[in-house]
What does this fold into?
Amino acid sequence: MWKQFYDALATIFTVLQKLERQEQEIKELRQEQKRMMSLIQRLAYEHQRSQEREAETRRILLLEMENQILKAKLQLSSAEKKEDGES
It folds into this structure.
């Protein structure tokens, strides 16, 4: 009878130890999940900012191209007027 009682106590003790380890593991996993979510949010923010910077760069390049085309047209127009004036 004492052996059964001792075995039962040993089993309970073992189960409690496993339960405590699992609770600690769950706590650590939740902390890791929070860190991962924070990292994902940061990456998403950085990705969005990168897309915004790229869009702004494209917009500036398009404006510069447009400016160069307008300058070239102006120079061409000016050259044509000079040629008409010389004739």
